[in-house]
Design goal:
Blueprint lengths: L1 H30 L1 E6 L5 E2 L2 E4 L5 E8 L5 H4 L4 E4 L3 H11 L15 E2 L8 E7 L9 E4 L10 E6 L1
Parallel strand pairs: 1-4, 3-9
Antiparallel strand pairs: 1-2, 4-7, 5-6, 5-8, 8-9
Bound molecules: copper (II) ion.
């Protein structure tokens, strides 16, 4: 009777300990990842991502919460220096749909997702060594005609 009680107590503590451990793991994973929503109204939500400098890699998930198909209202997520956003949008336009509106030869593109349509999502993980503290970075959708309005800012913390 006593042994049984002791065992159940050990089990309970083990379960609590592993639950705490799991929560800790999830918390640190969340710090190095962000989800950005996009829609049929050319919006990125949020328009700002904070990236901890402690992260070795960072994952961005792009969700398209709209209904329009990829050909009409596709979105991608392209990371570059703020001062390079217009440039990568231009070369992306020229690269066209076959290249997901990203020129593979444009080295100003630091990371990018593919293009998604309504109801779809995609993600990209990039190495934080690509980002230099003190530099200003942003993101943009380079799908035809979207770059003037679909853009956001990255803050390194
Ligand atoms: Cu777009």
């Amino acid at each position: 009777m006593h042994t049984l009680f002791l065992h159940s107590k050990i089990w309970r503590n083990a379960v609590i300990a592993s639950a705490l451990c799991l929560a800790g793991g999830l918390a640190s994973a969340q710090n190095c990842a962000a989800t950005i929503e996009s829609d049929d109204a050319l919006r990125f939500t949020p328009e700002k991502i904070e990236i901890p400098l402690a992260c070795k890699t960072f994952m961005v998930t792009l969700k398209h919460t709209g209904r329009l198909p990829k050909l009409a209202m596709g979105h991608n997520w392209v990371l570059a220096k703020l001062s390079d956003l217009d440039g990568v949008a231009r070369t992306g336009m020229l690269a066209g749909a076959d290249h997901n509106y990203v020129d593979p030869k444009d080295t100003r593109v630091l990371a990018h997702t593919g293009v998604v349509g309504g109801g779809e999502s995609t993600s990209v993980t990039f190495d934080m060594e690509k980002l230099v503290p003190g530099e200003r970075y942003g993101f943009v959708c380079t799908f035809a005609g979207h770059s003037p309005v679909m853009r956001g800012v990255i803050t390194l913390k």
